[in-house]
Design goal:
It comes from Rhodanobacter fulvus Jip2. 18% of the residues lie in helices and 36% in strands. It has 3 helices and 5 strands; from the N terminus they run ααβββββα. A 5-stranded mixed β-barrel has the order 1-2-3-5-4. The protein is globular.
Length: 169
């Protein structure tokens, strides 16, 4: 019995490492002065964070094309270790991604999950329904819209536990 316990003790870390290796790497490199606050926190005092870099993600709410740039409103979600939005989590406020030129709204459909790298560039007052809202403005350097396959990638279907369970995905 001692040999079995000892081999389990040594194999458990290897199994954990193997499962972690399945997750995709982050798509953007974090920078030293990156904002770790959520959009809701930034909206409270945007001047404190203006000019800092960030990596945020969320669900596309709307796209607005203007004369010289486009704005994508997002409902923010925390990011996983691969920088994918955790859409089953609680939203962390809204923000506006400012992109140069025209963006095709079909490339950023409402409900799509997106991660971006950019710089906080102030805020703007607006409305969500009838409620007043302060939107942090992010000048986008890079952005990525996640496909359903990319969102599933790296999520293993192995679960440990005691008892009986049935799951359908």
């Amino acid at each position: 019995m001692r040999i079995a316990a000892r081999s389990l003790l040594f194999s458990a870390p290897l199994l954990a490492l193997a499962l972690a290796a399945c997750a995709p790497a982050p798509i953007y490199k974090n920078t030293a002065n990156a904002i770790v606050a959520t959009p809701a926190q930034v909206a409270q005092s945007p001047e404190r964070y203006t000019g800092n870099r960030l990596i945020w993600g969320g669900r596309v709410v709307a796209v607005n094309n203007l004369a010289d740039h486009s704005e994508i409103e997002l409902l923010a979600y925390p990011l996983d270790s691969s920088q994918r939005p955790k859409a089953n989590d609680t939203g962390n406020g809204r923000f506006i991604a400012v992109m140069p030129g025209y963006v095709e709204p079909l490339s950023y459909p409402p409900g799509a999950l997106m991660t971006l790298s950019g710089t906080l560039n102030g805020s703007r007052s607006g409305k969500v329904g009838e409620a007043s809202y302060v939107f942090p403005l992010v000048t986008v350097n890079e952005s990525h819209v996640w496909s359903a396959e990319e969102m599933r990638k790296g999520h293993n279907n192995v679960h440990f536990g005691v008892g009986l369970g049935v799951g359908i995905r």
